[in-house]
Amino acid sequence: MSHKMECVEVSKVFKGDGVSTYALEDINVTFEEGEFVAIVGPSGSGKSTILSLLGTLDLTTSGNVTYNGSPLNEYSSRKLADFRFENIGFIFQQFHLLPTLTALENVMSPLFSRKVPYNKKERAETMLNQVGLQDKYNSLLSQLSGGQQQRVAIARALVHEPNWLLADEPTGNLDTDTGEIIFDTLHGLNRNKGCGVIVVTHDSELAERADRIVEMKNGKIVRDTRKQAYA
Ligand SMILES: Nc1ncnc2c1ncn2[C@@H]1O[C@H](COP(=O)(O)OP(=O)(O)OP(=O)(O)O)[C@@H](O)[C@H]1O
What we know:
Elements: E1 5-16, E2 19-31, E3 36-40, H1 47-54, E4 62-67, E5 70-71, H2 77-87, E6 88-92, H3 103-108, H4 120-130, H5 146-158, E7 164-168, H6 176-193, E8 196-200, H7 204-207, E9 212-217, E10 220-226
Parallel strand pairs: 3-8, 3-9, 6-7, 7-8
Antiparallel strand pairs: 1-2, 1-4, 4-5, 9-10
Helix pairs in contact: 4-5, 5-6
C-alpha cells in the first residue's frame, strides 16, 4: 500500500456573520510517500487549513482528500479515527501536552485507549530516546524547557509510528537555535524512519531545508518547488 496523499479540487469555505471566506480554493496537490515538505505563505493563506484537511481534523467544503487513492470524505467518523491512529501524527505550535503528567505519560497518552501488540511504556521510552530525552522520562512537563516540550510533542506524535507527521508551526514559539534543533529532529526522523513530514512554517530559512517547498497565497498554491535530496 502506498501512503500517497492527494487533494483533488479541494475548497474550504468558512461561513460566519453572513460572510464567506475561501480558506482554500480549488487546490490540487499530491504528497508522495516519505516526502519532507514545507508549506509556506503569508498569514491567512490557508496553510493550517490544508494541514487540518490532510489530517482529517476538518472536512472539505468541496473536492476530496484521498489517501492511497481512497476518498476520506466517505469514511465514517469511527473509520477516520482509526485512519488517523494508523497514519497521522500531529504537532502544533502550542504543544498541546498535559502539564501535570510526566514526559513518559504524555508520550504514552495516545495509546491509553488502544489495544496494541507492543509494550506501551517501552515504545514511549524508545520515542523519547529518539528525540534525545532519555534522561527526562519522569520529568513533569511543566519542568521542561520549550524546546524539550516540543520534543516530547514530537515523540508523542510518533509513538504509534504514523506514516505521516503533520506539523503546524512547530518552531513558532521557540528561539532560533532551538527551532533548528527541532527541525533537524524532524529531518532525522524523516530520513531514518521514512515517515513523511509536512511542516507549516513562517521561517523561510527552515523551509529551505525541506526537499520540497509549497508556497500558498490567498487559498491557492502559487509555487511548488522540489530540490535535490538534503545532504
Ligand atoms: N474556523 C474558522 N472560521 C472562520 N474562518 C477561518 C477559520 N479558520 C480559518 N479561517 C480563515 O481561513 C483563512 C485561512 O486560514 P489559515 O489558518 O489556514 O491560514 P494560515 O496560512 O495558516 O495563517 P497563519 O500563518 O496566520 O496561521 C483565513 O482567512 C482565516 O481567517
